[in-house]
Design brief:
By secondary structure, the protein is of the alpha/beta class. The chain folds into three domains: 7-211, Rossmann fold, CATH 3.40.50.970; 220-380, 3-Layer(aba) Sandwich (Rossmann fold); 388-577, Thiamin diphosphate (ThDP)-binding fold, Pyr/PP domains (Rossmann fold). It is built from 24 helices and 23 strands. The strands form five sheets. The chain has a six-stranded parallel sheet, with helices on both faces. Strand 18 (413-417), helix 17 (421-428) and strand 19 form a beta-alpha-beta unit. The radius of gyration is 25 Å and the shape is globular. Keywords: Hydrolase, Thiamine pyrophosphate, Transferase. Residues 39-134 form the Thiamine pyrophosphate enzyme N-terminal TPP-binding domain.
Amino acid sequence: MDIETGTIRLTTAQAIIRYLNAQFIETDGVRQRVCGGGFGIFGHGNVTCLGEALHDHRETLPLYRGQNEQSMGFAAAAYAKYHLRRRFMLCTASAGPGTANLLTSAALAHANRLPMLMLCGDAFLTRLPDPVLQQLEHFGNPTLGVNDAFKAVSRYWDRITHPAQIMQSLPAALATLLDPADCGPAFIGLPQDVQGWTYDYPLAFFEEHTHHIRRTAPDAGEVARAAAVLRSAKRPVIIAGGGVQYSGAVAELTEFATTHNIPVIESIAGRANMLATHPLNIGPVGVTGSDSANAIAEQADVILSVGCRLQDFTTGSWTAFAQDAQIISLNAARHDAGKHKSLPIVSDAQVGLTHLTVAMDGYSAPSDWTSLAQGERQKWDAYVAKNVRAGNRPNSYAQTIGVVNDLCDPRDRVVTAAGGLPAEVTANWRTLGIGTVDVEFGFSCMGYEIAGGWGARIAQSEQEPDANTVVFVGDGSYLLMNSDIYSACLTDKKLIILVLDNGGFAVINKLQNNTGNESFNNLIADTPTATRQFGVDFEGHARSMGADAMTVANPAELGEAFTRAKASDRTTVIVMKVDPYEGWTTEGHAWWEVGTPHTSEHESIRDAHAEVESARSRQRKGI
């Protein structure tokens, strides 16, 4: 350190970690580091330089040892989601396959608008040792490598070619990670030689800095135009998306809906914006929704979308709403606010709802409309109560969800992803606490469940150590990515994991059958190259990674096992077989566009194609 010049000589890697260590965020009067630490697997591309820097800050930026780079990224995404995008984790991977393994998790974070910082090894800038181990060679473009693939799945991308460059790159990356409109993963490629190069950095660069989340106020004209349309509505409805929670606008949404007597329906990401018992919560909407929400959505004349990106599972591939329904989109991101000829309100959800409340003063939706919506919800509640009830029928996802739901506490967090479980949880879970449901369906990514559960539990243990993180996972996703059971045990981050074994990829088998195809290559029993049939000992496998584990035969035994798991301080895996054909939630589905063969030798496929196409007349044509 040179006091006279106000500089300090550091390597690039040392400067990066020193800078991150000095970044804080203040939320509701609480100040804490914006980077909660990181997940890392070391290799020759990051161990000698970045590893040295992380070691020296291991007390304030704890580094969790990953088992798989992809699962590290999933854990980081779940951590950020728990903290409502106000904190993030870094992920560091070595050059080559280690970094390449992060591509899928970067895509998940990008699709879900979640912050994650990737600090990844890169080829030598000097090229003196080229080609090095694991380096891809593009004969006509020596600058092109694996890390360039991240440009498609990153909100911010940079490759550091000189130590001074990080003084511009790091603040820009953090600005992206914390921007409500542009939030997503940031990728920084670190050539192996540049990581160790030194530079005399100004000490001011490492002074502690406190960040605050930007709250963009809406344009007065946009609010006035939206309010005029809403005031004219006879059948208004609110779609509450994940952005409501990220904005901290749950109270404002509830107050707005209550003041104006407007029914609320939830997207998958917004699944826990209201408690199940709130009289204006009409249920989840869309392909994996509820009859109640879908019935109201298709009759609504004005739809106020708040913090929702209007993905096809929410909109029923744009058949869930009447052709002439007017959509108003209140969203921090301009891109989302203007979809399908929406009247946009580009604004933070909390601030935007406050302004809209003033502009809507005196308006109340017709009582008969709201009563109709509430009547539909009562019918849906009755269906769900029957659907989740154990009885003289095969074990199902819905029954499992019902048992766990009854035994959970309000602050217990539920995590699931991909396959059939997102649909079953979205439809059947009765929200006990605000923001306690994490159904990853933005990227619908198998493998997120256990890894995401671990990341969520790391975050949860910082704030609510006595609560539980409960993971629902099918046998297919378990086999794809399960090693973070070991991570959870290794770090004493207790999970309760429900492994529901239906013998393969049963939900895709259901789609296969529903489109007229025969079962093929989804269920183990229908895999022609499987020359033997046998089950996996999931209980034994989980035990081998340090977890308590048990296999149960039915929902009654599941309830007893779950109660024991809650009382335990150890990660527990509970295994139960469920039927791959029966027990699916049959109600609550909107139309969903899937590509089906326009011609086939099989009559069943031709008939199914005609049935799928029959609903296309209700699809909004991009306006």
